[in-house]
Fold each of these.
Amino acid sequence: MHLMYFTEQPMAAYDAQEGLKYGATALTFSNRYFNPVEASRLYNEYLEEYVLAEECGVDGIMLNEHHNAPFCMQPRTNMFGAILAAVTKRVKIVFLGNPLPLSDNPVQLSEEISMIDMISKGRVVSGFVRGGGQEQLANGVNPAFNRERFVEAHDLITKIWTEPGPFRWEGTHYQHRVVNPWAVPVQKPYPRVWIPGVLSRETVIWTAQQRYPYIALNTAIDATKTIWDTYSKAAAEVGYTAGPENFGYLIRVHVQDTEEKALQNARQFMWMQGEFTGLAHPVWANPAGYFSPSGRRGFVEFAVGRAKNPRGQPTFEEQVRDTMIVAGTPDQVIERLKHLIEHTRPGIMGLWGNDGTVPKEDRRRCIELLGKEVMPAIREHGAKLGLKDPWEANAPVHLKYSTDIPTMRAAAE
Amino acid sequence: MSVAWTETAHQIAGGTLHLMRGGSGRPLLILHHDIGSPDRLPFYDALAGSFDVLVPHHPGWGKSQRLEWMRHPRDIAAVHAWLLSDLGLKDVSLVGLGFGGWIAAEMASQAPAGYRRLILVGPMGIKPPAGFIYDQAIVSYLDYPKAGFHDPAAFTRVYGDVTTDQLEQWDICREMVFRTAWKPYMYNQALPHLMGGVHAPALVVWGDDDRHVPISAAAAWQKALPNAKLETVAACGHYVDMEKPDELARLVTNFVNAN
């Protein structure tokens, strides 16, 4: 198994009262409430915590990207990737992910990822995402073409990584006359690509068709199983059998020496008024053209306040009960996670350890306990269950490098 | 006298364009708002008393097929010009409503001597010198159209309780707006420079409480067009055709029929 440490890098020092008063903590919640002095302190603490995580034995550090909101201080995932390339030695640097549609220049994006891969000596996992609706609006990027831009940018970047330049690209959304960057990844054929997501069925199917691992972000167990089923079916249709190496799972896990302290801190996972990406108008998270037409009817009712959030809004207690938040002592957490991986069988896991205003000492203690006690136990249990990560399984980086699909083998010969 | 409206479908630019037509007299092409058009409106009926009124749905709106390649109101303008050509219509007057006003202006810019009269009602298309065009991306499917009326009762008169079907339609309309008018949002930087060649006398109409397109833009249109006059409609929002149908119909009729 590949076990990662994750934090949103919350902007813990923002005025929550002002957010409540304004009625939103995303997109248009004024950055007058963003304190760069406090953010400077937090960034440096988070950086030290990543170094600590490596020392404590995590396999990877998961990074992400969000804009215009206090819940996440990573408006550019490649920034921290570059920093980790320099200050860490062993851990995988896992981008989950670069929001491809936000880039008007995928060539430049490929250069950044390539540089980080080279400087880290081949430790990048180059996850790609579509980016949430708010991210499109914050970056002035057209949500109606989100899916098309995602696929085209992916195709352009992977072409850069697998074919020598110079070449010309005349695409629908991107046009480049001289694609010839003097920066390509050191990993061959290219860094592993993982695709995180939550809801979109089309994304799951596309991911399976590429044979990229799909990382379910904090979904309930039932929803996760539905995702795995969808993926497995699509995989079978293109000729391979999906296994644990194709599946990853991000879950919120907070560990402390006492259950009481763990539960108290774990309540911080609800710090954005229980909303994953902050309190926001529904049309910000799902601008027109962004989600699939099959969801339109239910969504428009919700967006004008006539229906409940299709995602539901479980309470903290419900999430603990349903193993969407795991909190306790190392033994308690290990117990819950063993149960979880027996049912969901992922080869990759992200343990989202800290959120909100959990104090520095507690964040560090959580990282220590995760790295030194929880992860070794889960790794061992995972090995018993045959939950191999992509490296252990020697999984192909992309479908086209498969050696277990007869037609592919024939084509290769 | 009730109007007999006919509905027809036309193959244009790779898709099916829906057209509603009624009345007789000089031809009048109505370019509808960004939020689409109800099938029937008192405004259309009033005009059909004096004119041959054509109300197509823009490709991707209402009953017209979406054209995947379409990227700009200029493209929509070309489709409507193609329609007029297929119908063999000449001397058409254009009535552009809001977003439809931008389309009408694009049509006129591409055929400067091509139209009889140009009527632009709270048009998008030119960047307002003061203020911003209301960003529909930030607000709900109800709040956006509601903000286009001065009197909430006028909104209810037209849309009633607002069915889920209507909400779905508004989401589709919004998606089409994003596909064709995302950036710059709701204006064309070149358009003010191209209006100078338009032969047709122009009438620019603005609701005095237009919260979608600031009335500061009216002056920009008057400056850009060589022969334009401005009329403001009192106690009226952006959707003048829906809020003050009789008054607007009167303004249009008098303007088109004057020599």
Amino acid sequence: MELRILEKSDINGLHWGKNYYVQTGQESFTLVANPGPLISDMIYFSIDSTDHFTIQVGQIDRFTFFGDPEQEITGLFVDCRKGSPTLHKKVELKFKPDPRKHLYIERGIAKMFTNMKNITVRSEPIWFSTNVNTEYNIGNDRLIVPRDTELENFPIVQINELPLPNRALQVILEREQQILRENKEYQQSFDLYMGGSRSRVTIKKRN
Amino acid sequence: MKSNDPIIQKTEIEGLHFETNLYTTSTDNGIYNVIASSGPGITDLVTHSPNFYYLHYGIHVGQVDRLTFFGDLNQKITGYFVDCRKGSPTLHKQVVLEFYPDPSKKLYIDRGIAHTFDGLENVLTRDEPIWYMSAGNKDYNIANDVINVKRDTPLDDFPVVTINEFPIPRKAYEFVLELQHLTMVELQHYPTRIPITINGEKRYVNLKPKVQEQR
């Protein structure tokens, strides 16, 4: 897959990439999907921020931000990849919505955004599976870290290594569509230390 | 390939309605996560500048539009629709809809229904089109499937079009997207395609702004 990097950051695997678009008039754009699995999720924020970081070990995020071109968003990132030369390095990016570019976030980089009210995000994930990663749960790849966590206390995660074929992603999407048609809830996971050993706990909303 | 999600609001034109989106919300309902709708799974996004305004209605002969509107939840959008489908019981009926950006629903506009909007300034629209083909349909132009009609046209003077009938496989969408990746240029003026009558026969002309040739 062609990489069209516009701007790098101090964490390898965290950068801005160029979108495929046409400008159809002053400040008006039409975008088509970027190359890849052709999955586009839309995330709309009616609140300013979440109160936590999120880490995904089997998913690359590609986020395009839409909204008031003068609204400054802050993105906070912490590298949590096992073996990374920048393990537990924190990067802060300040930027404004721009349909021409997307933020590429590798697996295992914790992310959180603030000042997101009325912002819409196009998410074009790329998913990976694993033969070795026992921490991965294909049904719930979302590890939550509270926003006030000290850097050295962020988890260290093993990321997945096997790109999933597009057909597998289509099957997963069809399963997601079926779940939502039946009004079921997604789950969330977090790490819990009990008696010195780490356990991954999965929670879901009560019915 | 299932292509319809449940209808939540009908209108007086069959084929023009709101459908539910497939989404989850955070526990405080502050964040909507909207996944792709049922159907081919192609997503195009269109942004609209602070002074955006449509001069024309647009009619697709081979494309169903499924539009989700994202933006300020209090910004009123007005949609104007005219049924232009040959043989439709509501031919040339006009419907006007007022609504607001809402991630939980999408507007389904069938082929052959002219549509235009007011109030899209700063609004983002997600389109999840469904494409259809036909053999020998003179109203269809595969290179430009938009027929433009001026906004002040009397209802009786709107065109009557034959819509395409055969849904295409997903592989064809992927092929078209690959072509778009190869041919996209950053600044593009879409041509205006208008119906005219020559010697009593309906024809279409494509109008494009003149571009000065490089010497």
